[in-house]
């Protein structure tokens, strides 16, 4: 980054009116900042003269947020670094940090902690056990979102975030987690843990009454037992959206969540493909169920009993299957009580044919949209069947969003016309 920050002096014999830019109205100067992409270059312009600094301050206050990629300032000389953070620091609300690319972490941490008091969101990537940037979490006080993507972590990170009582969102990817750092945040509504090692799962810190979204995807449990599920069911009374992988034994207790609206279950080749029948049965029997969205991803072993339970989830608005060759036409014949279903999503389900989907269209009177992707048994017959079923004087419409099927483009063009 070339050039120095600072005031631009005029020649003593130069008439100030000979420089048109110095006579610009503040509103025009503010518009200039909109066309300068880099925050560092905006600061350059702000340092031209006091009126430009005032215009920058006014412009910055009117913007919703300002982002800084810490890499953009690492190569700055110290005088430029000081000016940059003094001018722009108070307005920065979002920070991105690639922790693998720094040689003066301590200096940058000090500047951020001192001048960026209004930071609300931090995204860390390539985090290792030497997580010096983690000091920011304890020195800032207005953080609402924290995302940490680890690259080589063998121990639990020290995440002292207690000073940020406004925290609403926490994400950890490929790290180690105990949960003890997330127990005392009254506004925390979303926890995302992907590909993490969860230590001491019996004491996992999910004592969060306000939690609404919980993602536990691809995580390895040090102690896998029903205590984790029981803790979620007991403590997360407001939970509305759950994503979980490896949902086999003891998972049925999750059906007790009274406010659950969205549920995504995933299975991988390395884990059990069992789809907990007791969980589905409990949901089907639940009279006050609020479940509207169900997504089953992976090669779940779906049998007739599973399909029968799925077909009784009468509050569902959306049902999605992906990456499952076990799902077949006969299962759709058991979907007998889905009166509110409006959307079906199928992706990479190679055993489903036009016949199965035609049966579903006839059985679900509110179904008006199908998203179908990479299902090679779906042909033009689905379009004909949909027209036949929807054209029986009911005024029903049907949207087909298809890709990588055997439905021809010509068929779609003709029918959409």
UniProtKB/TrEMBL annotation:
Gene Ontology BP, a term: SCF-dependent proteasomal ubiquitin-dependent protein catabolic process
Gene Ontology cellular component list: SCF ubiquitin ligase complex
Superkingdom as given in the UniProt entry: Eukaryota
InterPro entries, alphabetized: Leu-rich_rpt_Cys-con_subtyp, LRR_dom_sf
PANTHER family: PARTNER OF PAIRED, ISOFORM B-RELATED
Name by which UniProt lists this protein: GH23424
């Amino acid at each position: 980054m070339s050039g120095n920050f600072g005031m631009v002096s005029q020649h003593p014999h130069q008439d100030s009116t000979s420089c048109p830019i110095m006579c610009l109205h503040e509103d025009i100067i503010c518009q200039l900042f909109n066309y300068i992409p880099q925050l560092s270059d905006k600061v350059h312009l702000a340092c031209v003269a006091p009126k430009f600094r005032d215009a920058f301050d006014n412009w910055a206050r009117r913007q919703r947020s300002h982002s800084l990629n810490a890499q953009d300032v690492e190569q700055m000389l110290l005088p430029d670094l000081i000016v940059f953070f003094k001018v722009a620091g108070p307005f920065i609300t979002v920070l991105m940090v690639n922790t693998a690319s720094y040689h003066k972490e301590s200096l940058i941490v000090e500047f951020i902690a001192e001048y960026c008091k209004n930071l609300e969101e931090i995204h860390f990537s390539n985090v290792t056990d030497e997580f010096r940037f983690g000091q920011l979490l304890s020195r800032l006080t207005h953080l609402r979102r924290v995302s940490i993507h680890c690259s080589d972590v063998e121990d639990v990170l020290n995440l002292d975030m207690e000073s940020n009582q406004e925290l609403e969102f926490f994400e950890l990817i490929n790290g180690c987690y105990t949960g003890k750092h997330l127990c005392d945040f009254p506004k925390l509504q979303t926890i995302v843990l992907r590909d993490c090692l969860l230590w001491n799962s019996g004491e996992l810190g999910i004592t969060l009454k306000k939690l609404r979204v919980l993602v536990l995807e691809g995580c390895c449990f040090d102690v896998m037992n029903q205590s984790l599920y029981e803790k979620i069911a007991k403590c997360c009374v407001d939970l509305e959206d759950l994503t979980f992988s490896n949902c086999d034994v003891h998972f049925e207790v999750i059906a007790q969540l009274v406010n659950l609206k969205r549920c995504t279950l995933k299975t991988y080749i390395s884990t059990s493909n069992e789809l907990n029948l007791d969980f589905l049965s409990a949901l089907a029997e639940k009279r006050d169920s609020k479940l509207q969205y169900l997504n089953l991803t992976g090669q779940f072993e779906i049998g007739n009993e599973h399909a029968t339970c799925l077909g009784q989830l009468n509050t569902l608005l959306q049902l999605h299957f992906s990456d499952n060759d076990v799902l077949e036409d006969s299962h759709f014949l058991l979907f007998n009580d889905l009166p509110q279903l409006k959307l079906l999503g199928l992706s990479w389900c190679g055993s489903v044919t036009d016949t199965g989907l035609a049966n579903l269209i006839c059985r679900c009177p509110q179904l008006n949209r199908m998203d179908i992707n990479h299902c090679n048994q779906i042909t033009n017959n689905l379009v004909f069947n949909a027209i036949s079923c929807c054209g029986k004087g009911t005024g029903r419409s049907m949207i087909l969003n298809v890709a990588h099927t055997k439905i021809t483009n010509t068929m779609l063009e003709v029918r959409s016309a």
